[in-house]
Automatic annotation (TrEMBL), chain A:
Cellular compartments per GO CC: endoplasmic reticulum
InterPro entries xrefs: UPP_synth-like (IPR001441), UPP_synth-like_CS (IPR018520), UPP_synth-like_sf (IPR036424)
Family: Belongs to the UPP synthase family.
Stated name of the protein: Alkyl transferase
Keywords of the record: Transferase
Enzyme Commission identifier(s): 2.5.1.-
HAMAP family: ISPT
Signal peptide extent: none
Gene Ontology BP, a term: polyprenol biosynthetic process
GO MF assignments: ditrans,polycis-polyprenyl diphosphate synthase [(2E,6E)-farnesyl diphosphate specific] activity
UniProtKB/TrEMBL annotation, chain B:
Required cofactor names: Mg(2+)
Organism: Salix koriyanagi
E.C. numbers: 2.5.1.87
Pathway recorded for this protein: Protein modification; protein glycosylation
Catalyzed reactions per annotation: n isopentenyl diphosphate + (2E,6E)-farnesyl diphosphate = a di-trans,poly-cis-polyprenyl diphosphate + n diphosphate
SUPFAM superfamilies: Undecaprenyl diphosphate synthase (SSF64005)
UniProt-annotated location(s): Endoplasmic reticulum membrane
UniProt GO molecular function: ditrans,polycis-polyprenyl diphosphate synthase [(2E,6E)-farnesyl diphosphate specific] activity
Keyword Lipid biosynthesis: no
Chief location bin: endoplasmic reticulum
Gene Ontology cellular-component terms listed: dehydrodolichyl diphosphate synthase complex; endoplasmic reticulum membrane
Recorded family membership: Belongs to the UPP synthase family.
Name the record gives this protein: ditrans,polycis-polyprenyl diphosphate synthase [(2E,6E)-farnesyldiphosphate specific]
């Protein structure tokens, strides 16, 4: 009887929280809303240590936080959501640290494909962007299958950056641009090659970036209080509002998104002006 | 028909009033946010005064040696206030900062390079400085000036250098071509085309919003970014606090 009473109270509280969130969203939607929000999910291990949990448990709770963020972004009308899930630098970690992460990725990707998952409920198209060749075949295949299976969705674009660094992305884009131009340039003689205007232009590099599938982020949020980008979206964040809350990633909540958007709205005019001038 | 028209009119006015009330609440929420920042601003002014006067112990002795290269991003509209920029540089020079990059999007600081160097004692251009010169004293500072053209356009120029090498390998295998396109080679190419500045350890942003405004992407992989507010409200104490916070940071570089 007592348990039923507590369950009922929790259900009512949950409904009240969802109602208040809806009201807040209605209010802040009066102002300009971001189209693309990016996240650096920092602090899973520190959260685990702080709460006497294993690292694997920290990552699992972090995954729940990711799913919550995607739901909030969908409610807020954000169209593109990008997460920095695994950096190329993270391969330097011990194999006993990396393997549980790979297992979690596989589990998460398989979960996405199930009926009734967040992907089908919210009409999410999933992208895995980065140098996927660095992953083992099971992870790479699972990622490719997930991208194919969700290709028909278009309400929200979920971009998960795996085996990604900005510098690697830039080099890859330069290489792709060079390979595109190779056919035309090879027909020129030596003098023509030397006299020709630059073959590779900024627009060529832009269109060959892994992140060319999305507009530049309006807001970038990095949790845990560290105030650096750690080789994430360096090319795309010229006029992006940066927000560095001190909470660890598993502790992120709607209040952080709300605060980031309120600050984005405060600076929207200035950032839009700078973007046009750039 | 009249009842239907009447109902539509009522619905329209209810919507208008509803939207008006929503806008009012939105403005009120932003007023609360502005008040919050006003309070934070007042607290920062007091803290800055306490730091400048040496009353806060932990800010008295800061190991500035950890700060090998500092970058300052200034909003271009504020960069015309050359006297403010020079004052900031003088503070940094007195603090012991040796190598500095000044950046603004439109290149206003680049155009004022000569007048800035003329007004600063013991400062030379980064490109002309020689670390081995024994005449360089403790307080000597090297200055680099950068703008938006040092970012993406520089990478395109570096990419063209790599492309010329790629063309020469027209008939080679894929493996040899792959070896051209590496991060090390692009860094080298950027240096060759004159954009080989070092990566700053710390980037201070003087502007209305916390964003790096296009500082060369290749150079800010692990750079700490701190927002200092508009240039016109810069304070010595806030500068000291930002450098102190930097010296306390521990990076693990992804491991």
């Amino acid at each position: 009887m007592k348990n039923a009473g507590i369950d009922k109270a929790i259900e009512i509280l949950g409904k009240l929280v969802r109602f208040l969130r809806k009201i807040m969203i209605h209010i802040i939607s009066v102002g300009p809303m971001p189209d693309h929000v990016a996240f650096i999910m920092d602090g899973n291990r520190r959260f685990a240590r702080k709460n006497n949990l294993s690292e694997a448990a920290g990552y699992r709770i972090g995954l729940l936080a990711l799913i919550s963020c995607v739901k909030y972004c969908s409610e807020l009308g954000v169209r593109y959501v990008t997460f920095y899930a695994f950096s190329i630098d993270n391969f330097k970690r011990r194999s006993d640290e990396i393997q549980p992460l790979m297992d979690l990725f596989l589990e998460y990707i398989e979960g996405l494909m199930k009926e009734g998952s967040i992907v089908s409920r919210y009409g999410i198209r999933v992208y895995f962007q980065g140098n996927l060749k660095l992953f083992s075949e099971p992870v790479r295949l699972a990622a490719e299958n997930a991208m194919l299976a969700t290709a028909h969705n278009s309400k929200l674009f979920l971009i998960v950056c795996l085996a990604y660094t900005s510098t690697n992305e830039i080099v890859h884009a330069v290489q792709e641009s060079c390979e595109e131009k190779w056919g035309g340039a090879i027909l020129l003689n030596e003098n023509e090659k030397n006299d020709a205007e630059s073959f590779v232009k900024v627009t060529d590099i832009d269109k060959n970036m892994y992140m060319a599938i999305a507009p530049e982020p309006d807001i970038l949020i990095r949790t845990s209080g560290d105030t650096r980008l750690s080789n994430f979206l360096l090319w795309q964040t010229t006029c992006t509002y940066l927000y560095f809350p001190s909470s660890f990633w598993p502790e992120i909540g709607f209040r952080h998104l709300l605060w980031a958007i309120l600050n984005f709205q405060r600076h929207h005019q200035y950032l839009t002006k700078r973007k046009k001038q750039g | 028909m009249d009842l239907k028209d009447e109902m539509q009119r009522v619905r329209f006015w209810v919507n208008q009033i509803g939207n008006f009330c929503l806008r009012l609440v939105w403005h009120f929420v932003h007023l609360l946010v502005r008040s919050w920042y006003l309070g934070v601003g007042v607290a920062n002014v007091i803290e800055s005064y306490l730091i400048s006067s040496g009353l806060l112990r932990r800010y008295r002795f800061i190991d500035v040696g950890k700060l090998r290269y500092l970058a300052i991003v200034v909003e271009s509209d504020d960069a015309c206030q050359i006297s403010k920029v020079i004052q900031l540089l003088q503070w940094l020079q007195a603090f012991g900062v040796k190598h500095l990059c000044l950046y603004d999007t439109e290149g206003v600081l680049k155009k004022s390079k000569e007048s800035i160097l003329a007004k600063l004692k013991n400062a030379t251009l980064f490109e002309e400085a020689d670390e081995r010169d024994p005449l360089l004293d403790q307080k000597h500072m090297t200055l680099e000036f950068a703008s938006i053209t040092d970012g993406k356009e520089a990478v395109a120029k570096g990419g063209n250098l790599l492309f010329m090498k790629y063309l020469k390998l027209a008939n080679s295998g894929a493996e040899q071509k792959e070896q051209i396109f590496t991060e090390a080679n692009l860094t080298e190419a950027l240096r060759a085309v004159g954009y080989g500045g070092p990566e700053p350890d710390l980037l201070l942003v003087y502007g209305p919003a916390r964003c790096h405004l296009g500082f060369p992407a290749w150079r800010i992989r692990y750079t700490e970014i701190i927002h200092m507010g508009p240039l016109k409200s810069m304070r010595y104490g806030s500068l000291v606090k930002a450098i102190y916070k930097f010296t306390m940071v521990r990076q693990n570089y992804g491991t």
